[in-house]
Amino acid sequence: MSPERHSVAEAIYHPIPQAPVASNAIPSASPDPEGDDETILSNSRVIHAHVEVDSRIRWIHFLLGCAVLLPWNAIITATPFFLSRLEGTSVKSAFSSYLSTTFTAANFAFLAHATATAKQASNTRRVLVSLGCLAILTFMLTVSTWISTSPGFFFAFVLANAVGQAAAGSYLQTAVVAIASLFGPSAMQAVMSGQAAVAVAISGVQVMSAAASVRGSDPGVTVESSKPEEQSAFIFFSLSTVFLVACAVVHTWLIRMPAYKAVTSRAPPQGRIGLHEDSALLEETSDDSEGYSYRKADEKHHVVRIAKTNVVFNVAVAYVFVVTLAVFPPITISVLPTNPTVHPLIFSAVHFLMFNVGDFAGRSICSLPRLHVWSARRLLTLSLLRTLFIPLFLMCNVQWASPSSTGGPIISSDVFFMIIVLLFGLTNGYVSSMCMMAAPSLAHNPRLKGRTEDVDVAATVASFCLVGGLAVGSILSFGVRAIVCDCNPFTE
């Protein structure tokens, strides 16, 4: 593959939205964890404790869902700008892998702390502080489009900024999920939709930007000027900063609503301390002191027990993202159009859009009861079957280091490649969302044995495993890239 084509192929890289948990249905009896999940649950009477929410609350949670992933989406969308500042350096070609690995590793570490301390913290405070930090970090990226620095300093600055955003995003994610869980599946679905929708929106904008930037140019020629990338990055970062500030304002509006005060006042005192605005005061009362001491003493044992109980769900959701991050984008970004009239930059942008549309559709169909799969074994099977996408992608027009050794692509249709990417995103969104919905559900997970105190722990452990899958997949992406390019993936 030529250097020009290589730089174009790695110019754009988008994230995979994460799916928070949903469904806190409470069964009237403790089911036997042995046997088939659906057979057991069909013999038990289930009571769904749903909280009715109005459209304002749903839209607020939709915006908060967007806020969780918007900064990261903005960073990834601005990858062409970052690459233009790293022109001529040895880290340019591997920058996407460095960025994704740094972010997901930091996200995994900080999410562990955010999960462990969730019950002792004020979620309202976490949301506001996290949004403020994200707004500041995004504004710093906005300023970076005006200032020219050395490539080495700029590389370190972007990675440090990514670590900061990963930290703030981890605390924001746990707090938003905790607050949404108070309002029930309706609010949680809004958060999930927001996370996926922001990726679709930004991908659509990127396609239009790519089309505008290559209009009238030869598909085989790479534009050398970095001015368009700087302008595009400035717009993305500026809008992201404004949006994050707006989300802080609407969250402040949310906590002043009577409905918010009503649901927080009904939260169980044990295991829900962090959900109350006056959590610090509650922890000091004699009524709660015994429960608080019990939680501190048994917290580690509790988490380990739930992790073992839900090991099938946890492995399933983690493996979904191991497969996704391992090949998307290291393999998919190296696929070039077989039609010479299609510009590689547009082809790359469209393939990201197709994945995000599929991911959004996969999450959306989880709202249809007829399409639900609650069985842990079936979900694990679906997760493992996604491995079959790897050879399918390798059959496409991948730009190998030695083209003569491959004999040409088996799948030479650009349309068929896009269909594969669409299905890849669809299965990513559907399987991951169903795992996250089923793992903490008392109504559909007999392994929890009807223990309400295990619901939030099961949810956070599953979320932790999801991010763990992202981290492992990002690390594996270096190995995948080494196979494709037959080079040192850290420097070339």
TrEMBL record:
Segments crossing the lipid bilayer: 62-83, 95-115, 127-147, 153-184, 196-214, 234-255, 311-336, 342-358, 379-400, 415-436, 457-480
Predominant location category: membrane
Localization per Swiss-Prot or TrEMBL: Membrane
Keyword flag Isomerase: no
Family: Belongs to the SLC29A/ENT transporter (TC 2.A.57) family.
GO terms under cellular component: fungal-type vacuole membrane; plasma membrane
UniProt topology in membrane: Multi-pass membrane protein
Record carries keyword Transit peptide: no
Organism encoding this protein: Trametes coccinea (strain BRFM310) (Pycnoporus coccineus)
The protein, known as: Nucleoside transporter
Pfam family, one: Nucleoside_tran
Domain of life: Eukaryota
MF GO annotations: nicotinamide riboside transmembrane transporter activity; nucleobase transmembrane transporter activity
Signal peptide: none
Keywords: Membrane, Transmembrane, Transmembrane helix, Transport
